[in-house]
Design a protein that fits this description.
By secondary structure, this protein is an alpha+beta fold. It has four helices and ten strands; from the N terminus they run ααββββααββββββ.
């Protein structure tokens, strides 16, 4: 409640006090926020709205996007413990989307642009759009990723982090990034018996108030290297 008061107290007179209506559509719409994660393309990618799989549960007449044992993320919680669950696909982004909507309230109340924080702008391998970047690599080759050109519209300091979203891809082995933080990272494509995909997330974080985030997703298609006879 204290966080809610902090967020709304300076944004005008509160309305509808004491009146509430329960609704469960929030996650469906969170995934549609155009933040660079590309959740709207495929809910199996994972994003603010969670991560889901398309299958037909018992009692359903057709496949639906829902949860099962393949839709769980393994995430390190605030207490340092690793948690593997369906809710983890959502709360891993909790600070990010809560700050985002707190900033949106600032946008509504600020008298000028400089009166509120804005999301940083993520550039991935020279691409400044928010589209998912699709790359191809052959096992054994090195793939390099760069955030050069990324910026912040408010002039805040921006930190760039990289991580492999293992559950979103079809390659389930370990992928060692050369750097988890910094302008660039790379990895050597692992050997595979059949084509697979690796999802790498570029995450920007500014030091404004509230701190805001931006993302890019690279889906790397991994091909086996043909061995010479």
């Amino acid at each position: 409640m204290s966080r809610a008061r902090t967020s709304v107290a300076v944004h005008g007179t509160p309305h509808f006090c004491g009146r509430r209506r329960e609704n469960r559509d929030t996650l469906s719409f969170l995934g549609l926020v155009h933040n660079g994660l590309g959740w709207h393309l495929n809910p199996a990618y994972g994003g603010w709205g969670g991560r889901y799989v398309l299958y037909q549960p018992y009692g359903e007449t057709r496949p639906i996007w829902t949860n099962n044992h393949d839709s769980r993320d393994t995430v390190t919680a605030d207490n340092g413990q690793q948690v593997c669950s369906d809710p983890a696909t959502i709360w891993r982004w909790r600070e990010h989307f809560q700050h985002d909507f707190a900033a949106r309230m600032d946008w509504c109340a600020a008298a000028e642009l400089q009166g509120a924080n804005h999301n940083p702008i993520a550039v991935l391998n020279g691409d400044a759009t928010k589209r998912v970047l699709r790359l191809n690599v052959v096992a054994g080759d090195t793939l390099r990723l760069s955030a050069a050109g990324s910026s912040d519209p408010d002039g805040h300091r921006v930190t760039c982090r990289w991580f492999v979203y293992r559950e979103a891809g079809t390659f389930q082995g370990e992928v060692a990034l050369s750097a988890a933080e910094g302008e660039t990272t790379s990895f050597v494509a692992p050997q595979v018996a059949k084509p697979a995909t690796i999802h790498v997330i570029q995450q920007l974080e500014d030091d404004g108030h509230p701190k805001l985030f931006a993302y890019r997703r690279a889906i790397v298609s991994l091909a086996a290297r043909e061995l010479l006879p």
